[in-house]
Each structure stands twice: as C-alpha cells, then as structure tokens.
Hints:
This protein is α+β, with helices and mostly antiparallel strands. The chain is about 20% helix and about 30% strand. The chain has helices at about 30-35, 105-110, 115-135, 205-220, 270-275, 290-300; strands at about 40-45, 50, 60-65, 75-80, 90-95, 105, 145-150, 155, 160, 165-175, 180-185, 195, 195-200, 220-235, 240-250, 260-265, 280.
Amino acid sequence: MTDPAQLLPELALARPGLDRQGWRRDVPGLLDQALADPATQVVEVRGELLETTADLSALVRRGIGEVAVRPGGEELLIHLGRQPDGPRLVGVVRPADDEPGPGWHGLRAVGLTLGDADVAVATALVAMAHWHRAHGWCARCGRPTTVVRAGWVRRCAAGHESFPATSPAVIVAVTDEDDRILLARNASWAPGRMSVLAGFVEPGESLEGAVAREVDEEVGLRVRGVTYAGNQPWPFPGSLMVGFRARAAAGELTFRDGEIGEARWFTREELRAQVRAGTVLSGGSPLSIAYHLIESWFGESLADLHP
C-alpha cells in the first residue's frame, strides 16, 4: 500500500464541488424541469472556452431568463447536477466562437484560479463538450445519434447507446539508485521542454502494468517499486491521469518507439541550475499532475526557479 504521506497534495482539477445526481438522469423531462425552475443556473462552454469573471475567480452563471435555451434546440444541454446545497446547474454546449470576447478562457488558463465548485463544473462541462463533438455518429452502425438522458447519453435510430468514457493514462516519475529523476522530451516538443513519462492504458492492462510497459517502450528501462501518487481528470479531450512513482531497475536509455526525442537523468542541483538558466522547462503548468510529481521529488517550489 502507498504511504499516505507519499500522496500528492490535492490536484487542481480533482477538487470536489459538484453533486452530479447521476441517478436522476432517467427522470422523464429532467431538463424541462430544470429549465422551468427559476433558481436554475446556466453555464456555457463555447468550443473549449468558458466565460469567467474579470478576476478569473468564478464562472459566469446566468439565470434561466438570461439565456435562450430549450430542449431540442440548436444548443446542446446537459444536466450537470447541483452544488452541494445549491441550485441546479445546466450546461450549454455551443460551437466555438471566432471572436468569443475578452471574458472567455480555456480551462488550462483558469483551472488554478477558479474555486472548488466552479472548477468541478468547468472540468465536467469541458469533458462532456469534447465527448459530444466526437460522438455524433454511432460507432456500431454509423447512424446519426441524438442526445438522451439529460445530455449524458447518445442514441442512434437502431437503439445503440454511447456513454461518456474516460481514457485512463498513467504518468510516472522514474528515479534511479542515486535518486536522480528521468525527464524526457517528446519528439514533437520544442527544445528544452521536458517532463515525466506518460501513456494510455491498453485494453486488459493494469495501471502498474501500463507504467512498466510505457517506460520500457519509450526509454528502454525496466522498473520496480511502482507506487501510486494521485490522480486527476484531464479533459483535453477525455483522460484520467493516474500518477505513479517508480525506480529504474535495469536497462540503458533507448528510444524504442520514436515518441521520445531526448531523455536525461537530473540531480536536484542540475535541474535547479538548468531551470534557472532557462535551458530546461520542466513539468509544465502547476495545473498538471506532471508538475506536482516533479516538484514532489524536487522538494522545493518549481515556480521559484524560473527566471
């Protein structure tokens, strides 16, 4: 079992704050009921952009009378549930706007500034918007699908149903016997941008098995001591990132599948010097689990290092 002290702190997109009320989605006319309730609040997403307050601290929520929405209309409606002890929430998915205006931002930009309830709403809505855009046609028969069950299922004329699915992916901080961390650059990334290894879980595979396979495929190392560190949704477009730590057991760095362009071992002193010099940009945004895996190993704030 993982020592609780080794778990990552609460991650930005994993914060609770939304009672999804999934058991109510089969209630006939649930969206009609929500839209008839003057207390219901509406949150919109346009493409992948959300409307926020000027200080980026909250989503803009509108009353039913302020937004032109109706079941069966051009917009796609989703019954999101409610905040604990709060009003019902309906999400409205609209196409991307070429000129969305100054108040519209991507979740990557506001995931750290929104409060718990709003980040939970935003993460669910962005993920569902991506899923709906990808499932307009039935994967089994090719017929067009329509939205049912309050926005959470798509059904074709033959009755085949598609449910929102999340693709699990593992992400792992690999260290060696000298407690150096392995950072790698995807072949498509700009020079200097480096992070920990990650990859999707394959059918019939455990999370730990995926860690071992991905590390072997990407850099040619075998690992041991795989331990869980934390997880968070990553709705870009629909993943669950599951974090681990592992120790390199054997092997030499070999880029087997062509995905990795560069990989190096770093001591803390080496990483500190190169991040300060601007030659290595590690971990990406504090929104990501990669950032926290690296910072957990480093033992200091990465944000304080950047020039």
